[in-house]
């Protein structure tokens, strides 16, 4: 009887391994098949684009592959190594507040869980209910465990908002510097020298990596991925594409800056349009009941007094 959990655990682990091996094999076979089909078409002169080749795959595979990748990313983040790497990226992006590292974040989460759990126990003891002791303990531990994570995510969201706000002006500086005759690296150095903010810190780090011998494409791609801002990642991809194809980079940067300003203007208009809906709930839930109480309260007291007298 005691060996039953061990057997079930072993079978579950074996099943996970077999599923992982099967998924890996299916990915390899799919990639091999697509490569073989592409080579055959090139030999026959019937070249097709990637979209046509993708549409030839079975529908089930095309539907399952994005779900599989999303599950894999989430599982990777939940593992200790993946979680530590995720924490490190976020801390580097926001400038390592309080000198924290991934181990420091985990320590902060444990300390917050223990502290709020102790507060929950104390509150339950003061209220004199054993049930409340358990409930408040669970709430305190769970809240303390996730509270530093929410704080870190809020810092990341604020930093991304700052980047999105300063990015168009920074792109104008880079574009003007390149139109004046500077190369991309020297234009980025001018940006770092004459502006301050979160964007210049990221650019300065990428320039240091380039000076140390890292390929510029890798340094810029890592910088864009670290921000998590889609417009910034699209900008880096456009710059690298323009560099490969010979398109003027200054023109590409200026066009991207104008496009970002248009998107920001549309976003502001959309937020302003949604403001009336956001105000509706507190107005109906807070303002109207107060007005009804002020207007109908005296009349209700008169009615109650008359009913009581009869």
List the helices and strands and how they pair.
Elements: H1 4-44, H2 50-55, H3 59-78, H4 80-94, H5 102-127, H6 130-179, H7 184-194, H8 198-211, H9 216-227, H10 230-245, H11 249-309
Any overview of this molecule?
The protein has 310 residues and is mainly α. Among the domains are: 102-156, no CATH class; 161-264, Receptor-associated Protein (Up-down Bundle). 88% of the residues lie in helices and 0% in strands. Helix 9 (216-227) packs antiparallel against helix 10. The longest helix is centred in the last third of the chain and has 61 residues, at 249-309. The chain is extended.
Give the overall average pLDDT.
75
Distance between the termini: 76 Å
What is the radius of gyration computed over CA atoms, rounded to a whole number of angstroms? 29 Å
The CATH class of the domain at 161-264 is Mainly Alpha
Summarize the amount of helix as a percent range. over 70%
Which word captures the global form? extended
SS field, number of helical segments: 11
- Beta percentage is under 5%
Low-confidence residue ranges: 4-9, 11-32, 39-48
CATH fold topology of the domain at 161-264:
Receptor-associated Protein
CATH architecture descriptor text of the domain at 161-264: Up-down Bundle
Biggest sheet statistics: none
Number of strands: 0
Strand/helix succession: HHHHHHHHHHH
Structural class: mainly alpha
């Amino acid at each position: 009887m005691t060996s039953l959990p061990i057997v079930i655990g072993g079978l579950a682990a074996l099943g996970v391994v077999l599923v992982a091996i099967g998924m890996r094999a299916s990915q390899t076979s799919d990639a091999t098949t697509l490569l073989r089909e592409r080579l055959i078409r090139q030999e026959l002169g019937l070249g097709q684009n990637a979209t046509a080749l993708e549409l030839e795959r079975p529908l089930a595979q095309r539907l399952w592959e994005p779900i599989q990748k999303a599950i894999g990313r989430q599982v990777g983040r939940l593992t200790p190594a993946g979680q530590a790497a995720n924490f490190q990226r976020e801390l580097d992006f926001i400038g390592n507040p309080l000198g924290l590292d991934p181990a420091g974040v985990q320590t902060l989460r444990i300390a917050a869980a223990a502290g709020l759990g102790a507060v929950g126990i104390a509150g339950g003891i003061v209220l004199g209910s054993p049930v409340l002791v358990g409930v408040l303990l669970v709430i305190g531990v769970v809240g303390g465990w996730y509270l530093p994570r929410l704080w870190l995510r809020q810092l990341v969201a604020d930093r991304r908002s700052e980047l999105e706000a300063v990015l168009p002006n920074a792109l104008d500086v880079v574009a003007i510097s390149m139109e004046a005759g500077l190369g991309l690296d020297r234009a980025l150095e001018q940006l770092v020298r004459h502006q301050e903010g979160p964007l210049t810190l990221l650019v300065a780090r990428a320039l240091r990596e380039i000076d140390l011998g890292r390929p510029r494409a890798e340094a810029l791609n890592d910088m864009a991925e670290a921000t998590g801002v889609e417009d910034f990642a699209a900008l880096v991809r456009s710059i690298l594409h323009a560099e490969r194809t010979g398109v003027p980079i200054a023109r590409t940067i200026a066009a991207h800056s104008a496009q970002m300003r248009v998107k920001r203007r549309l976003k502001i208009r959309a937020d302003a349009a949604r403001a009336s809906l956001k105000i509706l709930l507190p107005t109906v839930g807070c303002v109207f009941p107060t007005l009804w109480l002020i207007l109908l309260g005296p009349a209700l007291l008169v009615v109650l007094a008359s009913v009581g007298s009869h």
